[in-house]
Write a structure and sequence with these properties.
heterodimer, A: alpha/beta, Rossmann fold, 2 domains, six-stranded mixed beta sheet, four-stranded antiparallel beta sheet, 23 helices, about 55% helix, elongated, B: about 350 residues, mainly alpha, two-stranded antiparallel sheet, globular, AAA+_ATPase (chain A)
Chain lengths: ~600, ~350
């Protein structure tokens, strides 16, 4: 509470300081602040894209340039007002980003950042070679911004416009990150499979982030064109893009406030160097580039977390609005109608999976009826995990079919399967360690709500958010973790993290819950608690399939067992019969038994 | 476009491709052994070209001062590190390896430069002077973060390009140089189509060097150690190959290749201190076609880039760079489609 207060104090102090700044400082300093404001905008977008979404872009300046040129051209060639230019610039940049993003965002690994170099380099080259854009000399005499016939010619006038926009964009970003969409964006680095498990699409999430960051850069570019009233290719070069990355790393890559800190430090430093270096050399600009490069390299060596991380012991805080208080009054999210107990739910028919020559799953069939707990067991290498991946759509089938509620799901994507009501957990826990338990569980309810980018960013989603969080809190209380719902998920012991995963899958209101080795790494008491929870869920009508190693755990819990060995189904029946079955005993204990 | 023009463009394209071939081999080598995507390769090549130009015009190349500065800095950093670790005994060895060894080529250069030298001597000196630059820079920039993610190394490599081009201006000045061709005259390769001896020399030299490089990589012990490191770093370490040492050898080889690139390109194009990025990135497009791992595919990729550049410059001279860089995106798409990366992208922390 105290920390939140001190943070509000810092924010208020910054705002008051900014309002007073033009009256205290001279014209030159105000211009500097304007540069900082425009850079802050670009870096805000970059933090969203890179720090949150994990996509490093070396081409952000190109988007600034596209917008600046778009508005400049519209203004000088067609005489449109700068305010119309804003819509044109942002729209045009967003379209460019959509095309570039759609082409490149599926690239894996380091190929994606490399592709950003390609357009980061090509776009400014393009500006320098198009006659309509003035080639290398650029476009001059761009109209300044106007408000009601009053031209904002002086840096002081521009100052307020720039910082008002920075403020609005920052608030939008903060709200967005703390919304339904924002939670998905913050989970993007957890990978494709994690996102699909609660019905989100990683490509779409990245594409939205990419376009959003380009649009924010576009606002900066539009400001640049009408404040400086001159555009040329140089300020949008690859060099400039890398300077934005520098600012982001200086500030702290995963923190929106780092954008402001990084832009301020880097631009202030540049200004100081511009004053000092000419005393020593004729090549001041180049020495500046050398000094910046050396500083950047030292930063990478010694403080990759950035300034905010260095200061974090004094600035530690929770990134989330306190949504806990709302839960009491919230309307609950829509629930699915669960099928009647005993109705056929899942039908696995002759499923085959081949990895080249190796047959991992061979003609396996079994059924699951609503309301029962079925265990899928087998010794190491039996094909359990492969079967699990086939059921959840993580791997494609080589043969056979899987039906869920009479609909064939073999061939459907992980996301589609998740949306149909099959929830899963992971053998290697996939929680977002930096997000709270509450938010991690709230991710599970993603598909049960609908608020998008705009509603999230504009904070129009309170009612729905309250319902989501009420649901999340309900599921957390079910696993008995209410005391720790605001802790970072990464700070919990492994056993509890597995429980959080179960709560997350429950938040999706599943008909079938598939658990991948839920008891692994749990202590005896925890196992008992888990087993009690699963038994209670069965009473409430949830159907459960457990893929498990721990025989004792499974035997006491399940209604039926499917035993696999060497990719084939060895046995299907109740636990007592499995214990007595010769084939099962042979598989586990060897022929002699 | 007539047949004649197409042939002339093809010959030009082959000349450019030979440059990108050598540079592409260097990039693949560095990436596979050290995971560094070595964007500043072209800058080192520029240093080679400018050094040659200085030597040819009878001036003392500033490369000597550059190498001396870098060596002094590296020794300083290394000594501080050793003192911090408490391993004082290793200091003399470090001074020898990082301080004196890189200065070795400076001595003959100091003695000989300034006079009217025969061509072979200027070439040898330029090569020898360029070789220490990359390993020294890499020791300073990449060694302390050798275990970081590919992404962090890529950022560092990009920053290093700006550092090198800044240093290039400080040491070599802003003017551009073009050296004398090693061979004059031309030969009629097909009826009506001539190719200058210089271009044939470029192509020939590059093919011979690529072949030598290939043989050294396949047959020698050092080559095998590099390949082992490229395939499996931990495994190589377990059989006694030191990653830091292989990295240094790799950067020496890359430096040498960059030197050759500089010397071959110097008579063909006017080189400025900042011409390096374009050369490095075009070679890089070729290397990406080879997935940053396959040498034969890189050769094909370089050929494609060289020819595309040549034909693009005929079609629209100003846009040729845009066209070549844009090839990177389809190349990446194809690559990414065929490469088998993990089902679920691992999280890369910066």
């Amino acid at each position: 509470m105290k920390r939140e207060l001190s943070l509000r104090f810092i924010a208020a102090f910054t705002v008051v300081g900014l309002i007073l700044a033009p009256h205290v400082f001279g014209r030159f300093t105000v211009s500097l602040f304007n540069d900082i404001g425009m850079a802050t905008l670009v870096v805000l977008g970059l933090v969203l894209l890179s720090g949150i979404g994990g996509v490093i872009s070396f081409g952000q300046a190109a988007f600034v340039g596209i917008a600046a040129y778009a508005s400049a051209w519209l203004n000088t060639s067609l005489g449109f007002s700068p305010w119309l230019g804003l819509f044109f610039a942002v729209g045009f940049t967003a379209t460019s980003a959509l095309i570039i993003g759609a082409l490149t965002l599926r690239l894996g690994g380091h190929y994606l950042p490399l592709s950003t170099i390609a357009w980061g380099l090509s776009v400014p080259l393009l500006f320098g070679n198009i006659a309509a854009l003035g080639r290398h000399s650029g476009i001059i005499d761009i109209a300044p911004l106007q408000i009601g016939g009053w031209e904002l010619l002086s840096p002081v006038a521009a100052f307020y416009v720039i910082w008002a926009l920075v403020g609005l964009v920052a608030i939008f970003c903060y709200n967005l990150l703390d919304s339904r969409t924002g939670r998905v964006l913050r989970a993007v680095r957890g990978g494709k499979v994690l996102l699909a498990s609660f019905g989100a699409d990683i490509f779409l999430a990245r594409l939205k982030l990419f376009v959003l960051s380009a649009m924010i850069a576009a606002i900066a570019g539009w400001l640049y064109a009408h404040v400086n009233r001159f555009v040329s290719p140089a300020p949008f070069s690859l060099h400039a893009s890398i300077e934005y990355v520098f600012m982001m790393v200086v500030g702290g890559i995963a923190d929106l406030a780092g954008a402001f800190a990084g832009a301020t430090v880097v631009i202030a430093l540049r200004s100081v160097l511009q004053d000092v270096l000419p005393i020593f050399s004729d090549y001041a600009a180049q020495i500046q580039s050398v000094v910046f490069s050396i500083l950047f390299i030292l930063l990478l060596h010694h403080a990759r977390g950035g300034l905010l991380k260095v200061l974090s012991p004094w600035l530690e805080r929770k990134p989330v609005r306190n949504k806990v208080g709302w839960a009491e009054t919230a309307s609950s999210l829509k629930r699915r109608d669960l099928p009647a107990k005993g109705a056929p739910l899942l039908k696995v028919e002759g499923v085959v999976k081949r990895f080249r020559g190796l047959v991992a799953v061979n003609e396996v069939s079994f059924d699951i009826s609503a309301g029962e707990i079925v265990g899928l067991i087998g010794p190491n290498g039996a094909g359990k995990s492969t079967m699990f991946n086939l059921l959840t759509g993580t791997l494609p089938l080589s043969g056979g079919r899987i039906e869920f509620l009479g609909t064939e799901i073999s061939g459907k994507s992980q996301k589609e399967i998740a949306l149909m009501g099959i929830a899963r957990t992971f053998q290697h826990v996939k929680l977002r360690p930096q997000m709270s338990v509450l938010e991690n569980v709230a991710l599970g309810a993603h598909a049960r709500a609908s608020s998008g980018f705009l509603r999230g960013g504009l904070n129009l989603d309170s009612t729905e958010e309250a319902s989501i969080f009420a649901e999340a809190r309900h599921q957390i209380s079910r696993i008995g973790l209410s005391q720790r719902e605001l802790d970072n998920a990464g700070s919990l012991p492994l056993g509890l993290q597995r429980m959080v995963e179960i709560a997350r899958s429950l938040a999706s209101d599943p008909m079938l819950l598939i658990l991948d080795e839920p008891a692994a790494g749990l202590r005896k008491a925890e196992k008992r608690a888990l087993s009690d929870l699963l038994a209670r869920l069965r009473e409430e009508g949830v159907t459960i399939l457990i893929v498990e190693h721990d025989m004792e755990f499974v035997m006491n819990l399940v209604d039926r067992l499917v035993v696999m060995n060497f990719g084939t189904r060895l046995f299907e029946g109740d636990p007592a019969a499995a214990r007595a079955d010769c084939g099962v005993r042979a598989a586990y204990l060897g022929e002699a038994a | 476009m007539s047949w004649d023009i197409a042939m002339i463009l093809t010959v030009d394209g082959l000349g450019a491709a030979s440059i990108y071939l050598l540079a592409g081999l260097g990039l693949v080598l560095v990436f596979s052994v050290t995971r560094v995507i070595f964007v500043p390769f072209g800058d080192i090549a520029v240093f080679g070209a400018l050094t040659l130009a200085y030597l040819e015009t009878g001036r003392i190349p500033p490369t000597i001062a550059l190498v001396a500065t870098l060596a002094a800095l590296t020794v300083l950093v290394e000594i501080v590190r050793l003192i911090r670790q408490g391993t004082h005994a290793a200091i003399p060895r470090t001074v020898l390896n990082w301080g004196l060894l890189p200065l070795l080529p400076c001595l003959p250069a100091m003695l000989l430069a300034g006079g009217d030298l025969p061509t072979y001597l200027t070439v040898l000196l330029a090569l020898a002077l360029v070789v220490p630059i990359t390993p020294l820079m890499a020791r300073l920039v990449f060694h302390p973060i050798a275990d970081a993610s590919v992404l962090v190394l890529l950022i560092a490599a990009l920053v290093m390009h700006f550092l090198l081009s800044g240093l290039g201006l400080l040491f070599f000045g802003p003017e551009g140089f073009r050296t004398q061709p090693f061979l004059r005259g031309a030969i009629e390769v097909l009826p009506g189509i001539t190719a200058s001896y210089q271009i044939l020399l470029m192509i020939g030299a590059s093919l011979v060097l690529a072949a030598l490089f290939f043989v050294a990589f396949e047959r020698t012990m050092i080559g095998k150690a590099l390949r082992a490191t490229a395939l499996n770093r931990v495994g190589a370490q377990l059989v006694g190959i030191r990653p830091a040492a292989t990295a240094t050898v790799t950067f020496c080889l890359a430096s040498l290749l960059a030197g050759f690139v500089g010397i071959l390109i110097a008579p063909a194009t006017t080189m400025y201190y900042d011409s390096g990025l374009a050369i490095g990135l075009k070679a890089f497009v070729g290397a990406i076609i080879g997935g940053l791992s396959s040498y034969p595919l890189t050769a094909l990729g370089s050929l494609a880039v060289g020819l595309l550049e040549s034909f693009a410059s005929f079609w629209n001279g100003a846009m040729k760079d845009v066209i070549v860089f844009s090839l990177l995106i389809p190349a990446l798409l194809v690559r990414s489609h065929f490469s088998t990366h993990a089902e679920d992208d691992a999280e890369e922390e910066v």
